[in-house]
Write a structure and sequence with these properties.
The chain is of the alpha/beta class and 266 residues long. It folds into 2 domains: 3-183, Rossmann fold (3-Layer(aba) Sandwich); 202-254, no CATH class. Helices cover 51% and strands 7% of the residues. It contains 11 helices and 4 strands, in the order αβαβαβααβαααααα. The chain has helices at residues 3-20, 34-45, 61-77, 89-98, 106-128, 138-143, 165-175, 179-183, 197-201, 205-217, 234-249, and strands spanning 25-29, 50-54, 81-85, 130-132. It has a 4-stranded parallel β-sheet, with helices on both faces.
C-alpha cells in the first residue's frame, strides 16, 4: 500500500466532507487502540480544529495509559488539536443504578458504555460546529459488524472504513503511531476484564481478512455454499462460518430503519 498517497487522499476527503457539511472541524474519540490513533492522526493532518476526547468508563489502566500517550502525541504534533479527557464512569454508574435490574445484562451495559461515549462526542461536536469522525475499519464495520449500533457506529464519517486491519497497522506505522499502541492486542474496552477482539469474535483479524477475501471471490456466498469450495481446512471452514454468521446477523446495523409503507392503505 502506498501510505503517502492513501494519507493524502484520506486527509483531502476529510476536509471536503467537513466543508460540504458546512461545519468547521472534527471531534473524535481516542481509546488507546490503533484505529482511533490512526483516525485522530489523520484528523490532525487536516489542519482543521479537532477535539480529541478520551472517554474512560471503568477503563483498564493499560488502555488509559495508551490513550493518554496518544493524546500527548496529538497535542505536541498538531497545533489544531485540542486533547481532553472526560471520565464518564460516574455517569455510567448512575445510569446502571437507575436501570431496572432485569435491564442490566452484560451486553446491554457494554453497549450502554459505547452509547454514552457517542452522546459525549456529539455534545462536543454540536458545541463546536464539527462532525464526529468514526474509527471503524472494514472488517469491523462491513465484515462482522463488530460495533455498537448508535454507539461507536453513530458517526458522521468513516475515513478508514475501506481499510482492513492489517492496512490500518501499516498506515499507523507510517503516521508515527507509537509502537505501544501498534503492539497492543485490539480490544473494544467495553467489558469487565477487557477481553481482546479476537477472544470476543473467535477469530483473529488475519483470519477475518481471509474470510472477507473468500466472500469477495464468491459473490453471494452462503453457509451451504461453503461446502462446495474445495481445499478448505477445518479451521478455515470454522472461520468462514463464523464470519458469515456474524455478517448476516449484523446486516441490520448498516441499514436505515425500515418504514412501513401505507401506499394503498390510507
Amino acid at each position: 500500500m502506498d501510505c503517502g498517497s492513501v494519507t493524502h487522499h484520506l486527509v483531502t476527503w476529510l476536509c471536503r466532507q467537513v466543508r460540504e457539511a458546512g461545519q468547521h472541524g472534527l471531534v473524535i474519540g481516542v481509546s488507546g487502540g490503533i484505529d482511533s490513533a490512526v483516525c485522530s492522526t489523520l484528523c490532525g493532518h487536516t489542519g482543521l480544529p479537532v477535539t480529541a476526547l478520551s472517554l474512560p468508563i471503568h477503563q483498564a489502566p493499560g488502555q488509559l495509559a495508551l490513550a493518554s500517550e496518544h493524546l500527548t502525541f496529538l497535542d505536541t504534533t498538531f497545533v489544531n488539536v485540542t486533547p481532553r479527557t472526560l471520565d464518564l464512569t460516574l455517569t455510567f454508574d448512575r445510569l446502571t443504578e437507575d436501570l431496572p435490574e432485569d435491564f442490566r445484562t452484560p451486553l446491554a451495559l457494554a453497549n450502554a458504555r459505547s452509547r454514552l461515549r457517542m452522546t459525549a462526542l456529539y455534545a462536543a461536536a454540536n458545541a463546536s460546529s464539527a462532525l464526529v469522525c468514526g474509527t471503524g475499519n472494514k472488517i469491523e464495520d462491513f465484515g462482522v459488524g463488530f460495533f455498537t449500533k448508535y454507539g461507536d457506529g453513530g458517526v458522521d464519517l468513516s475515513p478508514i472504513g475501506d481499510l482492513v486491519k492489517s492496512e490500518v497497522y501499516e498506515l499507523g506505522a507510517f503516521l508515527g503511531v507509537s509502537e505501544g499502541i501498534r503492539r497492543a492486542a485490539p480490544t473494544d474496552g467495553l467489558w469487565e476484564g477487557s477481553p481482546s477482539d479476537e477472544e470476543q469474535i473467535g477469530a483473529s483479524y488475519a483470519e477475518l481478512e481471509w474470510a472477507l477475501t473468500l466472500q469477495n471471490s464468491h459473490p453471494g456466498l452462503t453457509l451451504q455454499g461453503l461446502q462446495e469450495i474445495p481445499g478448505l481446512s477445518s479451521r478455515q471452514c470454522e472461520v468462514a462460518q463464523l464470519y458469515l454468521r456474524r455478517h448476516l446477523a449484523s446486516a441490520h446495523k448498516l441499514r436505515m430503519p425500515p418504514i412501513c409503507s401505507l401506499k394503498g392503505v390510507k
